[in-house]
Amino acid sequence: MSSMAFLESFMERYDYPAEAREALRGALRHLSGIPAVRAFWADCMASYPVHHAPRDVSELFNRVHAVSGTFGVPYETVELLFFILLAEPLREIYRQEGIGEDIYDDTMLDLRAKLVECRKVYGIWGSFVAFWLVGFFALGRFGIGRLEYEPETKDALTLPDGRSFPGGRCLDVHIPSRGHLTKENIEDSFRRAEKFFRDRIPGDTLAFFCHSWLLYPPHREMLPADGGICTFMDFFTIYASEESPDRHDLWRIFDTPETQDLSKFPRKTSLQRAYLARLEAGLPVGEGRGVRFVPKSEILP
Fold first, then answer.
1. What would the pLDDT profile of 237-287 be if each residue is shown by its tens digit?
2. What is the pLDDT of residues 50-95, one digit of tens each?
């Protein structure tokens, strides 16, 4: 399939906004019309199927990142487009690895989430965190339902309630910005992830770790107990938290790179208003760390 044909089918499959489709379509036309760029692009595409270890995909992306600002197209657009086109060989790699089409689709939805984030924050159809996408294309991170999972190795940990993690292989949980969090879609994601990773992670128990602004304990005081954020918190034992003086996660809430000038923050959503009330009261924001243990004996076939 030609690059343009695949781009069109990909954007249709994952329901990209019409304006985004035109921007990405135009960017690919522009890139394809420059012989030197076309040759560089083709070389990167050809290299991927045999270079999908984490380090190698990072090196491949770094090649694109180093020159993406010189193509006459916003670098954010170039870098997202690069990963969209890599999604064609990735689909074949998934087949070879015996990974289901449903997980491929859930994983590829992260590209759309990054596209929409970039448009909201910077007004550009692309991604300002394209480096994050490397993990998906190195088979190191997977979307499964509403959440994403990344196999990791962590040190031993003892919780305040006496339970412990002995150290070793576990799973990091990530929360893409694509829709509401509900008890039902969180449970569905965990159930599917438990089955997928049961035989891929050693030991008798799966340990799911999450380090996120969503797990910040003061949410219990400032947000509805039955809302999406507190519902997500209910799935974890939160064992640590820290403040974020630089407020680096506020762009996720306010769709702006601004982190200090409160007058520039929108007040459109109840979450935005709750956070502004906290900030205007001089209170900090931060992150939490949580863990969820699931004995393999409890995982249904």
1. 999 999 999 999 999 999 999 888 999 899 999 999 999 999 999 999 999
2. 777 767 899 999 999 999 999 999 999 999 999 999 999 999 999 9
- Per-chain mean pLDDT for the chain: 95
Query: What DSSP string runs through 220-271?
Result: HHHS-TTSHHHHHHTTSEEEEEEE-TT-TTHHHHHSSS--S-GGGS---SHH
SS3 content of the chain, % helix, strand, coil (to 5): 55, 15, 30
Q: Which two tokens stand for residue 169?
A: 């292989």
CB atoms near residue 284 (< 10 Å)? 13
Instruction: Give the closest residue to 150 by CA, choosing from 209, 92, 87, 236.
Output: 209
Cα–Cα dist 20/17, whole Å: 5
In the chain, the DSSP E strands lie at 142-144, 147-154, 157-158, 164-165, 168-174, 205-212, 237-243, 286-295
Match 């990735």 to its residue by tokens: 90
User: Which is it for the CA torsion 25, 123, 259, 269, positive or negative?
Assistant: negative
Q: Where are the alpha helices (DSSP H) in 48-98?
A: 54-67, 75-97
181: confidence class by pLDDT, cuts 50, 70, 90? very high
Is it the case that residue 23 has pLDDT exceeding 80? yes
Contact in structure between 79 and 130 (CB atoms under 8 Å): yes
Distance (Å, whole) CA 171 – CA 295: 14
